[in-house]
Model the fold of this input.
Amino acid sequence: MPDVQRYDHFIGGKRLAPDGGQYMESVDPVDESPVAEIAVGNATDVDTAVQAAQQACSQWAEMRPLERGRVLTAVGRKLRENVDRLGRLESDEMGVPLGMVPTSLETAASYFEYYGGVAPSLEGESIPLGSTQFSFTTHEPYGVIGVITPWNAPLNQAARSIAPALAAGNVVVHKPSELTSLTALVFAEMALEVGLPAGVWNVVTGLGADVGTPLVMHPAVGKVAFTGSVATGRRIGEIAAQKIMPVTLELGGKSPNIIFEDADLDAAVMGALMGFVANSGQICLAGTRILVQRCIYEEVAQKLAGAMAMIPLGRDLPAPSLGPIANRAQYEKVLGYFEIAKQDGATLIAGGGPAKDRGLYIAPTLYGDVDMSMRIAREEIFGPVGVLIPFDAEEDAITVANDTDYGLAAGVWTRDVSRVHRVTSALQAGQVYVNTYFEMGVESPLGGYKNSGIGREKGLMALKQYTQTKNVVIQL
Ligand code: NAD
Done:
């Protein structure tokens, strides 16, 4: 008997042991002790889940959208009621401080509540063709959607794709990260208690190559919503191209956060700080390139370093606090970038190493006088690491900001409204924040320019992206 709880797949409303009989450990990032065992899935498990989803499909798709919406709203409420329990699980698996996890899970609940509310708004159009023909459109679900999610905000990222997919009348086979599968397994089961029909949300756990790839390749999967790295997104896109299947790809970032000399500096410094250290830097939208106008550069560097020293690190602390890096592989990757920064000749202002003797904690880290030739300015580190890049004129800031393969988010700090319009329009990014950083709500569309992705999640735009439009023309 294992010492820790064992979790099977959740398929067709039931827990199902993996076809191969294998389980793998999920590990606590503070002491690296096992938290649970999860099923190691394979292509047979994926096929079983897709079949279960197909069986649930017509009942769910044919339900009146208002009713479907009511169920999803109840799912959101259920999640909200269980934030403490789910939060503890998520904190055990990925290390997010207990004081911080409610925000992420309450947003997950909001996705179900929001898409529950807007489910009946998927209206078609009638198109005028004169008196002899009648033309109209409907928005139809794809059927089975494959949802593949990463480890950095487990249930939040899952809900972001699953809620709109279900609201539009699809059913889902979900493959969470093998590092953080527990909250999806537990909550997909809880959702049955408030009326989500069995088979509408199936969870198959395991490795990317064993579960993710067969899910993307499965002929009955009509669309894939993927959140994760560019490398994996590219592989999924290649398979999708062969299948002629639509994908939403929400990938990485190396977002610029630009501070102009006329900004409210205290607000900008706090925004810049949160922009790269929140969730210990494990946020795709993180503003890790902080571009500062040269005349305020020293002041900003000093203020940032001072504010960084005040951030408490520990998992059991109230907000705002930073937890460990979520897994050893990512921890080693971040430490590796400290060596790369040294080789590139970057100036270390603060941090630059482990923060505690025990646990995968990394000290919030800031480099100064960085330029775009350095790897720490170009590559996504996914840890609490920011780089300061000085600039002179507005055009220089825009050039540097756009000098990246990524294009997920950007920040602008200024009091000049004309500059706001000029700069936000010139920035190549899917979401731009002005005098703030991050928009954690569920209503505004989010997605990447360039290598940061394809398609949009969140808001009404995402709902439509989980449908295909049918046009009907009737000869009268
Ligand atoms: P990852 O690409 O390694 O894994 C993401 C998911 O894909 C996991 O479930 C994994 O098991 C699965 N996977 C891995 N290989 C696969 C394959 N060959 N086929 C199918 N599935 C496969 O990413 P990660 O390390 O879990 O997450 C970190 C990355 O996610 C970062 O780059 C981050 O920026 C990105 N991210 C993006 C967003 C966004 O909204 N744009 C949000 C969160 C994280």
